[in-house]
Fold each of these.
Amino acid sequence: MKRPGVYLAAAVLVLLVLAAVAPHLFTAQDPLAVDSARTLKPPGAGHLLGTDENGRDVFSRIVYGTRTSLLLGFGAIAIALTFGGLLGLAAGLGNRLVENVIMRISDIGLAFPELLLALVVITVAGGGTSNALLAIGVAGIPGYARLVRAQTLTIRGSSYVEAAHALGLSAPRVVFRHVLPNAVKPVLILATIGVGSALVAGSALSFLGLGTPPPEPEWGSMLSTARNFISRAWWYGVFPGAAITLTVISVTVVGRALRLRSEGKSW
Amino acid sequence: MPRKPLLAVALIASLMSPMACGTSSGTGATGGTTTGGAPKAGGTLVLGENGDEPACLDPHQLVTTNTTVVDRPIFDSLLWQDATGKLKPWLAESWKISPDGLTYTFKLRQGVKFHDGSVWNAEALKVNLEHMRDPATKSPLAAAYIAPYKDAKVVDDQTLEVHLTSPYSAFLNVLAQSYLAMISPKQIKEAPGTTCEHPIGSGPFVFDKWTKGQSITYRKNPDYAWGPPGAAHTGPARLDGLEIRFLGEDATRYNALLSGEVNVIDNTPPSNVQDVKANQDLGFTTIDRPGHPFSIWRNTGRAPFGDLKVRQALTLAVDRKAIIDSVSFGQWKLATGFITPSTPDYAGGLDGRITYDPAKANQLLDEAGWTTKGADGIRVKNGKRLTAIALDTGVNPQNTQILVQTQAAAAKVGIEIKIQNVTPQVSADRTAAGDFDLSVGIWTTNTADVLWIQYASDNITTAKRRGQNVTRLADPALDGLLEQARKATGDAERAEFYNQAQARLIDLAPAIPLYNRPSLVSFQKQVHGLDWDHAYGAVTFYDTWLG
């Protein structure tokens, strides 16, 4: 193992996925169990990472919050990648008019910070986990459209595509068999890194009170609430924050390793 | 559904305010008054306020909770309410009420001048009352508070006769509130469009500058010689200037006080009160606000809370004391009824009527027909789950906490509460439209007439008229009591009607009263002479000085 960090990061991701799928394996505590008499208790026996302002177990809320938090991160990128990819492909292959329309619209989208775009979507569609996911995903579309278009343009002019045309393959077959996979591959790896920023954006929306509604646990909203108690309950903010940080670092490290490998370089 | 911006309950709660009498806790003067030697003049005091910044500074157009803090420096009122709840002369020297309760004759103080040089007289008072009532003012609160006003007659320069359409026992009380403070008559007549952005009053401070989203600054009014009765001094304010900064984040506001960036903070985060008290360099003072306690309002106009037993069951299911103590770190007092003890005509005999008894809650829900439970423990009737929608704006972290803990308590007896995050505007609209089951809020005012505003069936919002009865309670017996209390001309008679109304409300359970909201004010030890506007329970700065 030349790079133990990559394996460590991969192990963290495996654990996170496990926690998202089967949180009960990690903790016996109910993340929703309120105890008004035991609020903001420090880490200790009974509550590994302490309790929050409603007396709920912080550890179990982090564990149970994994699913929503990861869903926000990966789901948003899936939306951005799917729609951004299709639009980018269309722009790269279509005639001038199609390309201009798609790219000018995406330029407008790119002119706004992603979080601001997400806020616009939330304002129109309302808050909640699925809308937050949608909002971040939509906000990410212009960026991916541009990336995929650039890749498509390069590939379109490549000799193997010309060869495919020369062999008389149908246009759809050329597009979906040869252009799309090659255009999306490098973008896909970039997207793993994007998962990290989508997760942070999801946390930011929750932080603003626009994401996951109470009482469902979600890292960003935990962090958001915790800031009001930071002077007397450090554990409440530090651990959800650490979970976000750890996830983003892990995803980024693994994504980078994948990218390097796809480029034929060593990790 | 009406989609006009309405005062939603939640908003209202946070919006309305003032009040008065009764037994205000504390004597008023606060802020290191005992030490520090002789008062010194000069200096500018900086107050850190929460993020509830008014959209306009015209008191007649306001509903926000910070109206008194922001506007009292600029504006004086007809009457002043003292610490014991008594109404004292201020811009009115004296007043007489006709035996039928329909005519009020005010004799006005002489020598009062507004910041623009215009003179305080009978005409000025009349112009102000008309301004509150003028539809163009779009007054959400002052207009409602003087709804029975019919017209006024200038008897002589210093005497105004005010006629009401019906007897209104709360009339003098509301006139002591900052929402009904006196604006320059010249400004109202000549430039009514400027009252929001450039307020002109007769108060101890002159409005200087308003940087929206940040701060409001004031400078001393050197001609001021009509301070409220009971103030520690006469003449101009001791401070040269005043600045109110809006620091919405609780932690930011508290840290601004610690770092000395501000001298005083209002709305001290409850979680920091103990820290303030333990800090040698800081002082702390508090007062409970009058009016309707902070409550969870229930929509009685639809299922499930149309059913009295379900309402009673939820009240019984909630351990109010445990919730309030945990949310406020012991800084809030548990509400004992539908008005707070610092409100006149509070029915102290009803204390202890609202209880915590989950077993009884379960029994009531069984009686109401919600007998079967789903796999998750939520009750079901005719295939329908016992679900209630609660609106939360997320603006106030304590409100969210209260809803979450209530949600957990409700689940234990088989009631599912779904908390929906909505913007304040959506919350206001949906509350007004009756599209909700639970909503939190408070209404601060200095008279028990708040019960009429909140629970009289006349005040249910209709297509024609927007009312503040957000619970949509319609009970003829209660309506009768509140109406009679409004018309009562004797104190004892009025108190008796309000007594019965408060008992009736506990039986009808349109809301779960939770706590009496205090003003929690923290200050640097160099600050002396902070005082209260008792008509609202808000901090004032006329006597204040910096050591």
Amino acid sequence: MAVQTSAVPGARRRKPALFGLIPAGKIERSEALWFWFFISPWVIGFLAFTTYPILMTGYYSLSRFDFRNPPEWVGLANYASLMGDSIFWKSLQVTSYYTLLSVPLGIIFGLLLALLLNQKVPWLGVFRTLFYLPALLTGSVAVALLFSWLLNPQFGIINVVIRNFVGPDGMIPLGLSGPRWLQDPNWVIPSYTLMSLWGFGASMLIFLSALQGVPTALYEAAEIDGASRIQQFFNVTIPMISPVILFTSITGVIGAMQLFTAAYVISGGNNLGAPAYSSMFYNLYLFLNTFRRYRVGMASAQAWILMVIILLLTLLMFWLSRRYVYYEADEEGAL
Amino acid sequence: MADTTTTGPVVRPAQQVHRGVWASKARQEQIIRVIATALCLLGVAIILFPLAWMISTSLKTRAEVAIFPPTWVPVVPQWQNYTDALTGANRFDNYFRNTMFYAGGAMFGELLSWSLVAYGFSRLRAPGKNALFVLVLSTMMLPFWVTLIPQYMVFSRIGWIDTFLPLIVPKFFGSAYLIFLLRQFYKGLPRDYEEAALIDGANYLGIWWRIILPLSLPALGAVAIMSFMFHYTDYMGPLIYLTSDKNYPISLGLQQFRAPFGGTAFHLLMAASVTTIIPPVILFFIAQRYFIQGIVVSGVKG
């Protein structure tokens, strides 16, 4: 398979094959074939573990199916019954509320902390490490269990501290007490948001490296023009790191829409969505329909709806960002 | 940051006072740095508090956990909580072994496939390559569930339920996750060696094995760590595919552990939780540079 550098004159000229995917020239042809060889794991995976399952999920979503008996075509009946399913709407509402609360807050905190660390603070490496440490563990069962303990209404340390500060006998006796957090339907989503914010070190790291990449010449020029620090922040820093903000928002939204582990673990696995469906995240309801109720057709419809929602949200964010995101000319274009 | 809120007797008389406290640029920077450092210290205290509280709880007696006001430091550290939590009915050594086996296997599969695919995308020219790469990236958007049910069907039909195979085998077929990082790294490597090797008659597979892989060890290290951490904490995959306790990884084992105590034996629960976070934390401190590189380049959390 060595590359041959000399072409025999008068040899039969090949034509590009497979709609031009395989070029005519000998060297180009060999390189293109090697390319397909190298990416073949991905191609196989894409067909077997992505394309086929997506299409099958689409097919199941149009069928009545319970894993046991063969799927039976019912048209759009699953989608129709989801539209009339109040728990489905509740799950959508819970998930949107969580996404809208946790993603912007995570970005704001991450950015503020990155700005703080970018002020030439001493022990930068130590701070960076310590702030990142919780992010290492987010999404794990241990963190979900830890927060269910911290937020325990009776013995949880957060409520103890609240009571000590503003409780009836506290330092400032306002007679207030902490909320019941994960046990109060109105406080469930803020509790999950608190948990996700604990891992804001990951976005902090990304923002910090973006901030360090902003050329200092831009700040010097702004200063000569008389821009204040705040003006510099909004007119230099934000535009320069806007691609990173966009990227973090998109991955943040995709992640938040799919929260599962914490909600499942905190519910103990058998009280899904408690209390009063206030923690019935989208994927939790999907799990319930698939593996507990065996309403696989309906669950497949939910999965497809989620895919379309995420697709639309991503396109929307790209579209909205066209006006606001600044891209430096890159040798290879975007990406 | 708080540049207008701070006032203080810091103006030196010798200086012109037309900008108040902010008389000199150096002084201004100095004040900002002090405030930033103070805020960072406060932030670190807040963010590390849950971990400290976790450790403190894990060393208390059951009675001490519930007293009010709580003790910040255990009166007598109960080290036997750890042995109680980790031995007996909950075979944590077994959970750890399972996690290492499955996370290690999945990591190996991902490293191998990602490295091959990223090499193809970064170094070889072929028509349609860029469009294909956009397709690779767009699969990152796909929710887990839209592919899960048919995969589950297939794996259950071929009898792979309650084995590690559904969690390991698909990883050998390159997902999008982190191919991006490796591709960026490969693009930065010099082309000279490759061209020399081509002229010497090596093929691309040989080049990948003998030149690219050895040169990309740092990037592979970053990717390996992120992949390992992902599988170490993964809960959903094992939850769906593993059904018997003997196959549980620690993520499921920890959850399993909670049930019999009805959520009340927090001292033992925290002891078990602390144990599960020790390996990632150690790995993090050893290989911090790789972690940070991986997160910064790829923009995703492992």
Amino acid sequence: MPVYNFKKMSPVPSAPDLIDIVLMRTQRRTPTVIHPGYKINRIRSFYMRKIKFTQQTISERLSKMLTDFPRLNDIHPFYADLCNTLYDRDHYKLALGQLNTARSLVDQIARDMIRMVKYADSAYRCKCLKRAALGRMCTVLKRQKASLAYLEEVRKHLSRLPSLDPNTRTILMCGLPNVGKSSFMNKITRGNVDVQPYAFTTKSLFVGHCDYKYLRWQVIDTPGILDHSLEQRNTIEMQAIIALAHLTCSVLYFCDPSEQCGYTVEQQCSLFRSIKPLFANKQLIIIVNKVDQLPWDEVQPEKREMIEDLGRDANCSIMTMSNISEHGVSAVKAAACDKLLEKRVDARVAGKKVDGVMNRLQVFHPTPRDGVHRQAHIPDSVKQAVADGRIGSADHKPKRSRKGYAETVDDIDKNDEDATMDVSGQLKTARDLMWENGGPGVWAPDYREQYDLKDKDWRFDAIPEIMDGKNIADFVDPDIEKKLAELEDEEEQLLEELAAQRMGEEPDSDLDSEEEAAVAAIRDRKKIIKNISQANRSENKPVLPRSIRGRTKDKHDRGDRNKDVVKDKMERLGVDASIMIKRGRSLDKTRGRKRGISVSRDVEMDNSNDSPGTEISKTQTKKQRRSRSEAAKREASISRGHSRPRDPSQIGLHSDAAVEAAKKLEKQGRRMWEGGAGEGDNRKAVHLVRWMNTGKKRNGTHYCR
Amino acid sequence: MPQHEHMERHRKLHGRRMDAEERDRKKESRLVHKRSEFAQKVHGIRAKIYQKRRFKEKATMRKTIAMHNQRSNQHANDEAVADGAVPAYLLDREGVSRAKVLSNTVKQKRKEKAGKWEVPIPKVKPVADDEMFKILKTGKRQKKAWKRMVTKCTFVGDSFTRKNPKYERFIRPSGLRMKRANVTHPELKTTFQLAILGVKKNPSSQIYTNLGVLTKGTIIEVNVSELGLVTTSGKVAWGKMAQVTNNPELDGCVNAVLLV
């Protein structure tokens, strides 16, 4: 359960990459087509959207980075200090701060440029401003090249840090280089740390895990520490110091009295004294390592005395251990774990939280009520079964029927058990035997051993294929001849029955040839209908409702409900359709229109009838005729629905004159950009250019001007 | 789970493949062909970008080579050192061939000879009124058309307050007002962002000058106190002329060249 997991941070792109990402995203996620003929508002919003989108993408990206990277003030002081030594706190903060500034700069640029686009009066100006805006934003990003590269390196390193939980049960090894810290780590965990015979093989903290008392223990291997002042320590040593300073753990200080590590016992003791303040409040054990090289008893007494002094000073125990001979390894682990566990339990019991748990705990010690001895109840049937040996414990296994199974080891008598058992008492499998006798291809188990025969001696007998001139496979069944005779009898009987049936059967049908032809025709027609409907059904296209499907579409595809189609269909079925069609005609909606036209014709006729009677001038007659024809047209189009011009009063105007005025106004409004593509079009078409339209237009002079 | 430098660790444990070095070498030597193949294949905007990048790379390469060459041709000229006793004031002089230096001084002199008050953009395209102003319709029926809105960037002083709408003939939108200009010093070849003090001359029209319109070629006065320039009489100059070199309404910023 790692609390601190820095592996989730997403990669930080380099500055050119980031620019590419941002611009490509803008290109892909915003509309790309615009024409100068569009309304200027539309053009402006098109470009404003581009600028805004780019700014949003950039700030989104930068904010992601800022939130991804841990803030050193918020994380555990162990990690904060580790980051300080590994990546330099100031540099780290500066880089993040610069990203933050870049983000606000980009926001500001976008704000300013959008404000300018609002005043732009042409597509060209909008475009130039957009270009400038995007360019400036990208320049801001380009300036972050160094910080982005640095942060990417930090991210890579952070994500590869071992996931170390600062609050869990921890064992920590420390000491001079080459005293056997990493070897011990490899002994008790599966950390697989590199062990080499030179100093500073371990260059950073390594984490392994081991189990003790069903608990999970975190084991931390630190790089070796040299004995000098804190200022002189390098990054590698500082990591060990930080781990010692910030983790509450059980510390194992490794000593090497054999001095194979290259440092004298005095040096080892002085290092211990110099880092002693870091051991405060920790469970310390001094480990005397490499006792296989120099047993503790044979160490020079003065050196022994020095090490024991350390133990007395720090008030801690001394344990001997060897990674090579594995002497004392598990004892050291157990001691360290026990000490820490005890401390942690004490701390927990002393803490406030324990009250909440203790209040809820109550331990009962039940006292016996009377002298009656109450035993477990075992049903009689079970007792009986145990007695019979059908169920029971492992020492008397129940016998199951093995009928039909091949012989197994269980069935073999105790006598020949020696043969199949190994020296160690393990059962030999056929596979083991195969390897013993020369491997696959040389030896194979004899499956005949498992044959289940009446007499076991028959198992290995050879079986001939032909015996007394007959194939013995034919005589596997002893009653084969009897069965064959039965089969033949049955077949003969069946044949006889069939013949008897044929004799008494009637002829096929009692229809004459005409009727049969009719039946065939019906069947054919049915088949055709079925096929058509299946074909229609299997077509993958939208299904129209029946009411629409039935209407006439054109003369080639007349709908089902068309008069002629209905008539045809009904006549084919032998039904007189005339009444049906008559009734349908009376309900037909479209017939209303025809009546309307005919009515108007009547009116026209009336007019034409009475006009010659009165005396009017020629122009007046013309006018009358025109108005009449117009009225006729109007009448004709009334029933046409949408195309019919509406009453002035319906449009909201009081008279025809007002309609005319409105039309004129509309035209005038449009005149501003008529000829152009729209109101944003400043282009002057050729016919509007003055020099091409003024002056003489003689042959040969016009186009040369 | 790998800890720390897992790549190095893997290499340490398992080594690299036998032909790793050879593969690296081959990859490097094939790179030229790969590049040329790509350069021949690519077209469109990608080609432009690629060519520009390559051009830059090659230019830097050429420059570094040239730099090394220059260093080699400016070697100490041992023969130029006079034999025998030398007066004290000549003791620490080394014989260096001064060919380069000389040519530089000649160039410098030629430059100084050129006109002192030459303006960087001598010719300016005039800006017409109808391009500069947008007519605003006013009045209850929107039929009065005496108001104008300036459509270009302007400089408006700090103390400016807008007039009563009834009397305000020219509107300079606050979105198009500029306060600072990116001024390049032509000799130092460096650019500073300086505050604009005023518009001295808009070559298109006197009205534009009065309105403080910034177009290409406009002469503006900028605050150079940050640069620490000194006049011939020894005073610190704080206002200097500069000419606008771009179309601020298209770029959203004012670029100018200092007139020295």
Amino acid sequence: MSVDDFVSHAASKWLSEDGPESDIVISSRIRIARNVTDQAFPMLSSDEDKNRLIDAVERATQSEEAKAIGRFEMLRLETLSPIDRMVLVEKHLISPALIQVQGGAVLLRDDEEIAIMVNEEDHLRMQCLLPGYQLDEAYRLADRMDDLFEETLDFAFDEQKGYLTACPTNLGTGMRASVMLHLPALVWTEQINRILSAITHVGLTVRGIYGEGSDALGNLFQVSNQVTMGQSEEEILGNLHSVVRQIIEHERKARSFILQEARTRVEDRVCRSYGILAYARQIDSKESLQRLSDVRLGLDMGIIDGVSASILKELMVATQPGFLQKHNGHEMGPAERDARRASLIRERLRQQH
Amino acid sequence: MLCEECGKNPATVHYTEIVQGQKTEYHLCESCAQEKGVAAYEALAGPFSINQLLSGLLNFDPLVKQRMEMPKSECPNCGFTFQQFKQIGRFGCPQCYETFDPALDSLLKKIQSSDQHVGKVPKRSGGVVALRRQLDDLRQELQERIREEKYEEAARLRDRIRDLERQIKA
């Protein structure tokens, strides 16, 4: 694997493959924060400490147990071009914050399902990102990575406060579990705000992946646990599961409702969007996300066929500014990007037939 | 209005740059503004983040205000001060939690709903903690068996509890 392999393909495994319930659940993610005892948090730690930590993390991936989990590659952010860094953010493999810090690095498994940020806000931020509804599988994987690193690193832990993190909002389990949902029918039927506000009452938070609230672009929402203390990992996951299952149920009902009540309107919107994506010569990322969402809905509801769900998912990432520029090999202004985005979408949709 | 740079996010940063009498207006989103190195932006607007919210909570807490005058206001390990924590909402090193512990109780209850960790315990460094958790569970079970008058099982549990207690001491 090389840097180029990671940044030149839009299709991480979480994007290219489908998982359970993938007509609604795009991906499932676990993120665990850990810190070592013998260093200040990255905000204060020296360059020497940061390098030492990166080396120690890399060394931990040489063991037999690590090799049983997969092949890993460490990427130091300072060795990457600005566009490459942006691509890693757009693929959800690193946070925007990692780009801002000194001495940041990310350890990636070759299929990109595991991404471990080193020296971000915490020493380690371990992420497992799987396609579809696979929250438990993602947790098992993250738990295994945690055990692996714990063998050689001394993690800061307190009996009462749990795993110690730079920000007290991550104390305790240090775990954030989240599910990315595609909820076009709940947005269409205007039930989304009612559901979103109910979610916040049960210790979960929800936000738009792109954009905020009911204006979430592409109708993509991320539901995650709000607190990390006072609940075990299993309770956090159980709580999230029960809410996500209900949301899936509501979205399914809303989909059959709009199909019954407004079939022609739904079909019109889906097909119009498909037409625009297939023929537009200039499209901004906001519009393309919305159109891709419409087409995806049409596909999942059986209104259209001949498009693959994974291509739509892949285009969500491939049409982001960083990826477009990577694909084209140079920096572009907004107008050039809009034109390039439109032609990329046209090409990909045409390859389908 | 959308950001001129990425055309993706709403433009929330508006500013006018005057270089040698040449006026240029910019309308950017937050991330592009940062990327462009608009350091002046943060100085002007101040960052808004979870950390800032946290420090807001602290500043409004009268209890914390009193404790602010505690003598120990600097972490002996990393030199981080409680004043700094109030500003950025993050600590300097793991030991800060011990240093500033008295001031944290009410804050943790506010942001975490509980101040007791009940989840995973590290296998190696958390050895004793894990044993103590096990011990608590066994003691509870013992009480139940006694209540149910299952004395044989209770005796077995009592032996295991003694073993564990010895292990923890060692």
